[in-house]
C-alpha cells in the first residue's frame, strides 16, 4: 500500500517532512500506539506509525525503528520542533481527525497488516527477536579528545527517547562513556554498537589498537597505563574497566595484543518508564 492510498483512506492532510512523492512511498505494515516503548518493542522497518503523541519523540522513534511515515490522530498537529526534525530525517507527517481504533481498523480492513501478522510468517524465535531489535553503530576515533563522549551521549539520548528506565540509562551511559574513552585514549579507531530489545540493552565495542596483555591486571581498580597527557585532561584514573563491570549485569572482555580489544556489555530490562504493571 502506498502512502498516497493511506492518505486518501484516512482523509488525512500532509503537513510536512517527506522528500519523495506519496505514491512512491511503499508501506509494508502499520503500528498504532501512543507509548513509544511499545513502538520500539513491536515496530518494524517500513511501517507507518499512527499516534496521538505530537512531540519530537514520535519522529525520533519512527527514525529509530525505520518507520517511513507518521500519522497524527484525533486532529492533533505536531509542534515546530517535531516538524523540523521530520524535515531533517525526511519522514513524511500526516494528520487525520480519525481516532486510533477507527484509523487502524480502516487500514487493516483494506489489507495493510499489523506487526503481529508479519510475526506469524513462520520465522524462528531468534529471527523474531532480531526483527524487533533496535541497533545503532557509532564510529569512535582514537586520540580525538574533542569528539570524545559524543557516541555515549547519543546512546543516552536514544534510550531516553524510547522510554528506558532512567536508572538503567544511567548505568548504560556510564559504561558507554568509559568504554568510549578507552578507545579514544588507546586505540586507533573503534565501533560502538547499541542494541535494544524488549529484554535487554547491549553495548558492543570493537577497537583496533594495541590490545591488553594482562586483562586480570587491567581489571584492578586504580591500575592505569595512561600517559601524562591523558591524565592532564582528567582521564586515566584506572577505573574504566572496573566501572563498566560494576554497572553491567554481564560484562565480557577479550583482547589480542597487537590487534585490539572487544567488550560485550549487557543490561537487563524490566518495565520501561511509563509502562504499567
Topology at a glance:
Elements: H1 3-9, E1 13-16, E2 29-32, H2 36-42, E3 47-51, H3 56-65, E4 69-72, H4 80-89, E5 93-95, H5 100-109, H6 115-119, H7 125-131, E6 134-141, H8 150-161, H9 166-186, E7 189-196, E8 200-208, H10 215-218, H11 228-232, H12 240-247, E9 250-256, E10 260-268
Parallel strand pairs: 2-3, 3-4, 4-5
Antiparallel strand pairs: 1-5, 6-7, 7-8, 8-10, 9-10
Helix pairs in contact: 3-4, 8-9, 9-12
Based on CA atoms alone, the radius of gyration comes out at 22 Å
The CATH level-2 architecture of the largest domain is identified as: 2-Layer Sandwich
**Morphology call:** elongated
Q: Describe the oligomeric state of these chains in a short phrase.
A: single chain
Secondary-structure element order, as H and E? HEEHEHEHEHHHEHHEEHHHEE
CATH topology of the largest domain: Heat Shock Protein 90
Number of strands: 10
Distance between the termini: 36 Å
Please state roughly what percent of the residues sit in beta strands, choosing from under 5%, 5-15%, 15-25%, 25-35%, 35-45% or over 45%. Answer: 15-25%
Helix fraction, binned, reads: 25-40%
CATH homologous superfamily of the largest domain - what is it? Histidine kinase-like ATPase, C-terminal domain
Instruction: Provide the number of structural domains.
Output: 2
Major sheet: 5 strands, mixed
Low-confidence stretches: 119-132
- Report the mean per-residue pLDDT as an integer: 85
User: What class would the helix/strand composition place it in?
Assistant: alpha/beta
Alpha plus pi helix count:
12
